[in-house]
Structure formats: structure tokens, C-alpha cells
Fold each of these.
Amino acid sequence: MTRLKPPVDDSRDHAKGRQDAPITLVEYGDYECPHCGRAYLAVKALQKALGPELRFVFRNFPLTHVHPHATRAAMAAEAAALQGKFWPMHDLLYENQQELEDEDLYRYAEMAGLDMDRFARDIESEAVAMRVKEDFLSGARSGVNGTPTFFVNGVRYDGSWEPEPFLAVLGRLRR
């Protein structure tokens, strides 16, 4: 059984949902990965179906050898996070996976309502680059070697992440 390393830390991780939710789903994802794009839709369906019983956490795992825009997109999400807008940027990136050039990232930052001067500084910062690297390294320590990779309540989940079977598995963990 492969465990998540480090465990979810609400002071650091990007989480949507209650801290005391009975189900914590962690995804290691890559914004340019087409499989992650499909998983994004599955996670949205799970969030809708499970509501307050699900806490979703996203960690960056850019596969730069196959997705040349993935790291830069992850840096855009982290730069947005510094302004409290991680989730709007996360969604914009997944909803526009085919358009991840720098000018696109700046357009999404504007759409998310970011302070553009600050975004321009933050996306280039060492702190943002290190944040993406820390996520990647935590994934490597957790045995992640591809995307998307999910952990359910701290344990790697290798089953189907299509909405119906995934919901059936997660539904068994409900209170």
C-alpha cells in the first residue's frame, strides 16, 4: 500500500472542501495532460455528487518531458494562489488545455481578476518555482510516475477515475 508523503497540510496544500470531510481526495496533476483534463471533469462530478463529504486537494506534477507547457502552467496557478485565486486559475487552465502559451496564461490571470503586475512578478519568482518543485518531489516520494495519480484518505488509488466507478468506490467511504 503506497501512502501519500507528506500527508495533506491545510496550511500548505490547495484544498476545496471541509477539513473534517470523511473523504480526502488528492490529485497529482499536470495542466497539459489530456488524461488530467478528463480527470478534471470526473473530479467536478465527484464534488457535485459528494458535496461536503469530499475534500479535494491538488498538487502539481508537471511532466515536462512530454508536456512543454506544464511547468509554466503550474507556475501560473501558484502565482494566482498568492492572490487567493488558485482555484479559478486551476479551472481556467484545465478548461483551456490547448492554449497554454505565456500570453494565454496572462489572459487567464486577467480573467481571474488578478493584480497583473504582481502576477507578472510572482510567475517569475523563485518561490513559485520552488513550490511547483516541492509538489513534484512529494509526488515522486509518494510513488507518482504519471498523471493523474490519486490518493484517497492518504492511500494511493489505482482504480478507475471515470466518474461512475470512482463515485462507487468513494461512496463506500461516506459516513
Amino acid sequence: MQIPPEEKIEEKLPEGKITDEGVAKLREMIGIKLRLEYGGFQRDATIDTITNFSNGVGDFNPLFRDPGYGRWTRFSSMIAHPIFPISVDWPGRTRWGLPGVHGFGVANDWEFYRVVRPGDRLNAYVRVLGAEEKQSSFSKRLVIQYTEHLFTNQRDEPVARTIGICTRHERQTAREVGKYSQEKEATYSDAEIDQILKLEAEEPNHIRGAETRYWEDVREGEQLPSIVRGPLSLQDITGFLVGCGHRSHAHGVLYSQASRHPQHYFRNRQAGGGIEYTGIGHMRSEVAKNVGVPAGYDYLPQRIAWLTTMVTNWMGDDGFLKRLRMEARKFNLLGDTTWCEGKVTRKYIKDDYALVDIDIWCKNQRGEVTAPGVATVMLPSRDPSLKMVVDGRSLELGLPIPESIKASWPKRSG
């Protein structure tokens, strides 16, 4: 393997620009299939990978970590956490067009079709849906990119479909605007830390588990038991990366990868000039500041996983999470604490299924909602005329795509 010249890897973060030409090239890619970013690092669902994922997102549910427990559920097996498919690829990741322009994952909209069991092998079909420009108070000009992920198993059966959304920002402009430059570092009293730890320790008590939650017993307006995650540490972030099988290169392999994609890597002086990925700002606060963020911060699918855990804790083993959407509105910085909360907003019957809609959100220690969302759960009913809860049933809830994106799609011919 021949490695390109070393000088291509700069000693600072690449400073790409958003240009009309670059945006036009993005739109030329609409409908194109993208190869998987992580090369299928963790495609196999096994007892180990499923349990490791639960560890990485902090989920205590025995359905996702105990084969003996799962054997006596309706699945006759342990199953994976609903967003385990991110072990194959992350919807909403930045990896097409605009080299050197920083990207943040900002939203996912999931529709689930089947559970994942040990022995399943997952794949993903990823295609470009579109790109649009907007003005931003964070970095002035920005580009929003949309992708669609269809996750399938080894039988080519759909497991989940996701719309992933990311935003692209010029690093220099974000630094100069300094929207978050006055953000204060999180501090806590000993009593506050003790209360957070107490809530974390009590979380297993709120897992519904084998006690069936019937649709008839749900009340509109009822609150879901909240869960807490934090204060966010470097250990939390690295644990998440290990749990979801995040690809990582090292030494000569890293060098060869960086040399092929120099706009995504740099030589970091904090590491003695060693090569690091531009996304290392999630873990290195000094790098985060270079992209306009005051400290290291979490990953989009982390918060999605936490909200999913809150919902699955509430619904119990006999429910089925049908849809979950979340939008990251604020950064979750190192040291921040996140409370995941939810409220039932509607219960109804559709296509002879008993359904519940839930407003969900993440709130930090400042009382700010950092990530609002919605979820839909299918629950068992005492009414025998309604259908049983099973996977593989699409409710065709629809994943909303902006009309401006649809208008840019190629016109059908014939």
C-alpha cells in the first residue's frame, strides 16, 4: 500500500468554505447511494455486542442484556436496544461534500419495523435526499443535509428506516461569531451531585419489564418516569463509542486513511503532532473551541439512545416502539447533566392497533430544553378485537421531508 506525501495533513483544522459551487455539487448527489462510513465494523448482533451497546448507553433493561431473562419474554430471546442499528452506520453523519466544512448531527427520525436478536446480521442502504441553505445565528451561512437509512437484516427484511439530518458550518465564521463564547461551565454542589447519583441508582426501579402496560390503563397527560445522564464525562463519551462499535484507526492505518482524506484529519499539537480526526472536538475542548463550541460535547445518537431508554423503560416488554424523532437544539457539553422527560399527549386506535403518542425531551441543569422529540408506542389492549403487538407492521406514520427538498428531486420520466 502506497501512502501519499505526509505534508497533505495540516497542523491545524481544515478551514473549508461554503460556496455556491460546493452546494451545487451536493445537489447533484440527490438519490445517490452512499457507502457505509464504518465499513460494517459491528454488523453482527450477538449477546456480547447487544450487551456492550446497553453498557455504552447506560441502559439497565434486562431485555437488552440478559439472555436468561429474554428467554421468558414474548421474543423467546434477549433483543437489542431499538437503536442498535447505529452500530452499522450513524444517520445524519457528515460525510458527503463540502470538504473542510464542519458538520453537526442535529436530528434523526426513526420508524421501527422489527426487533434485532442475537444471530442477526445488519446492513444499511443509505442514499442522499437533498441539501438546503439557511442563515444561522451560530455561523451565518449554513447548509442542511438530509439522508435516508434503511436498515435490514440478513433476510433482507427491513428493521428500521431513518431520516438523518446534519448541518454544515464554516469553522472560522463560527469562532468569530462566538454565539456560545459566554457559556458558563457547569458546577454543582455536593448535594446536587448526590441527588443526580441517587436518580441514576434508582433507574432500574422504573423499568416496567414483564408487568404488561395495557393501552386502556394509559392516561393522556401522564408523565413518564424521567432518567438522568450526567454530568457528561469523557468516560461517558468513550463508553458510548465503544458500545456502538465506532470505527477507529491507529498508527500507520490511521496515517493511510488520513492521507486519503486530509480534509477530515489534522496533526494536533496537543498530541505532540499526532494525527487526529476533526471530530475529536467531542472529546477535546480546545478543538471544540476552534469550531465555535465552548467545550467537548456529546454525540447526537447518544441523546437519542437516552430518550429511547426512557420510553422502553415505560412501555414494558409487551410494547413496541414504533417511531422516535429527536432534534438537537443546544449542545450538551462536558459537565452538563441531562434529564430525559416525557408526557403522554394522545392515545388512539389506528389500523386496529392501540397507539400512544408521547412528547419527549432532554433538559439540562440550566433548565433549558436541549433536544425535543416525539415517540409513538404500540401497546397491548384488553380488547380482543384489536390486533396483537408484533414487529414487522408498518403504520406508515411518515417521516416528514421538507417540500424544498422534494422540489429538488429529479423529475420522473416515462
